[in-house]
Write a structure and sequence with these properties.
By secondary structure, the protein is mainly α. The chain has two domains: 102 residues, RNA polymerase sigma factor, region 2, helix turn helix motif (Rna Polymerase Sigma Factor, Chain: A, Orthogonal Bundle); 76 residues, Orthogonal Bundle (Arc Repressor Mutant, subunit A), CATH 1.10.10.10. Helix content is 70%, strand content 0%. It has eight helices and no strands. Helix 1 packs across helix 2, helix 2 runs antiparallel to helix 3 and helix 7 crosses helix 8. The longest helix has 23 residues. The chain is elongated, with a radius of gyration of 19 Å. The N and C termini lie far apart (48 Å).
Length: 192
Amino acid sequence: MTQKEITLIKLAQGGDTEAFSELVAEYDSRVMNLAGSLLGSIEDARDVYQEIFIKGYNSLKKYRFKSEFYTWLYRITVNTCLTFRKSRGRRSERFPMRLEDNPELTVNFPDADAPGADETLLEGELSEMLRKAVKQLPPKQRAVVVLRHYHHKKIREIAEIMSLNEGTVKGYLFRAVRTMKEKLEPYLQGEY
């Protein structure tokens, strides 16, 4: 944590809304990305985005600098998203967000005659199958997979973010990987 971040947090804890706005600006894209990954929809991520930062603002006085600020904020994000999913039920969802809302996720299909075109298309298909497999995971397993493989968090960080012990995180990750392998097996065997 940088000295600037510590200063902003302390000012925000004292009620300085401009300092909190700077913290929001620092983390807003990461929070939106995580929420979108967990919820599978940019619309749902937008719905919870404001709630996440309101909860953060209201809880900021309880923050004691025992963990990194982003870990604390990610915990609020994960918990808010899990609660949102429970309240909405398992209505139709998309994972990840809609491509038209995220131009960075669009795939540029190569010229069919270009070297490596088949491999690029195959990678795109496999990536889509993987997204579908992640979408079907139970919420906590999905959260662990998203944090580990899409946000590159360590097991220890995930445990802290989700308020779990490391063994539980490893268990969720193990079961998620096993489930995804089972779902992807026909594809990997060429039986699709």
